[in-house]
Amino acid sequence: MSLLPYFLLGGGFGFVLVEAEVVSWFRIQEMFRFESFHMYGVIGTAVLTAALSLVALKRLRMRGADGKPLALEPKAFGSGVRYLAGGTMFGVGWALTGACPGPLVALIGSGVPVMLVAVLSALAGTWTYGLLRPSLPH
Amino acid sequence: MSQLFTHPLPWYVAGPLIGLVVPALLLIGNKPFGISSNFRHLCAALAPGQIAFFRHDWKRLGGWNLAFLSGIFVGAMAAWQFAPPAHVAISSGTSAALRNLGLTDLSGLAPHEVFAWSSLLTLKGFVSIVVGGFLVGFGTAYAGGCTSGHAIAGLADLQPASLVAVCGFFAGGLTTTYVLLPILFR
To answer: Does the beta carbon of A122 lie under 8 angstroms from any beta carbon of chain B?
Structure first.
C-alpha cells in the first residue's frame, strides 16, 4: 500500500487550511464570538459536501479493495458521556490554542513554530487519557 | 504569487474542498477522515508503555493517517511560503473585543503576544499553549474525534455521537471565550 496518495491529499488539505485562514486563532475567536460567517461557511459547506458524497457513494454501492462498502463506521453511542465530556475538554483546548489538531500541526510550519510545544502537550494529553482510560466513564 | 489568492480563500471554495477529503479518503483506501487518531498512533510509536490503548498495530492502522498528517505540515508550509495570508481581516467587533482583552498586535495567524517562545512561561502563554494543547489531546482521545472526525465526517454521516461531541466542542469553546479568556488575558 503506497502512502503517497494520503500524503498528497493531506498536502492539499493543509494548503487550504492556511489559505482559508482556518488555522488562525483570530478566526476561531471570531467564530466563538459569532461575529463572522466565514468559519460557519467553511464547516457548513464541508459537512454538506461530505454528506452528499457519502450518499452518492452509498447509492453507487461502491466497494473498496477489501470488498467492504465505502462508508464510515458508526460510532458506538454508549452513555454518550465520553462525547460530551471529551468534546467539552477539546472545546476548551480549541479556544485556548485557537486550533484543532490539523491546524495545530499546520501552524508549526506556517509562522507559529511554538505550536510544536502545543502538539507535544497534546501527545501528553492523549497519553494521559490512555493511562486513565480504564477508570473513565464512556 | 500571493496575488493569485485573495485572502481568506472564500468559504464557498474552502468548505467544499475540505468536504471532498471525506470521499477522497474512502476512494483511495476506505479510510475515515479524522486527524486526532494520529496522536494515539504517535503515542503508540513513541511511548506505548504497558497501556492497552497504545498496544495497537499503529503502522498498519495509522500509517496512512500519519502520511496524511505529514502532508498537512508540508502543504501548510508551502502555503505560508508562496502565498501567506498577510493579515487576517477579522470583524471590527472581534478586533475591538481582543484589544479590550489587552492584545495590541493583531497581525499574523495567532497573537504574537501569546504564541511566542518568549511567552511560554508567562501565565497566558503557558495556559494557551501547554494547557490548551494538553486539553486538545486529552479531549479528542476521550471524545474519539476532533473537528475533522466529528464535526465534518461524523455530522455528514448523521451520527448522534458526533452531534453530542460538537455540542461539547461549543460548550467548551464558548465558556473559554466568554469566561476564561477575560480572566486569563487581563
So the answer is: yes
Does residue A9 sit at the B interface (CB-CB below 8 Å)? yes
Q: What is the Cα–Cα distance from A22 to A11, expressed in whole angstroms?
A: 15
Q: Tell me how many residue pairs between chain A and chain B have CB atoms under 8 A apart.
A: 517
Nearest CA to A122 among B144, B140, B70? B140
Tell me the sheet residues that pair with A69. A63
Cell 463506521 sits on residue: A73
Q: Which residues pair with A63 in a beta bridge?
A: A69
Angle between helices B37-46 and B132-143 (to 10 degrees): 100
Whether the per-residue pLDDT at A130 is higher than 80: the answer is yes
pLDDT, one tens digit per residue, over B92-149 is 999 999 999 999 999 999 999 999 999 999 999 999 999 999 999 999 999 999 999 9
To the nearest whole Å, the CA of B113 is away from the closest chain A CA by 12
Rama region for A111: left / alpha / beta (φ>0; ψ in -120 to 50; rest): left
Spatial distance between the Cα atoms of B73 and B38, rounded to a whole number of angstroms? 13
Question: Which of B18, B66, B87, B99 shows the shortest CA–CA distance to A7?
Answer: B66
Chain A residues with CB inside 8 Å of B116's CB?
Answer: 114
- Rounded to a whole number, what is the distance in angstroms from the first to the last CA of chain A? 34
Q: What is the pTM of this model?
A: 0.96
**Cβ neighbours of residue B73 closer than 8 Å, sequence gap 6 or more:** A14, A105, A106, A108, A109
Whole-number pLDDT of residue B4: 59
Judge whether B110 and A21 are in contact, CB under 8 Å. Answer: no
Cα separation, A91 vs B147, whole angstroms = 10
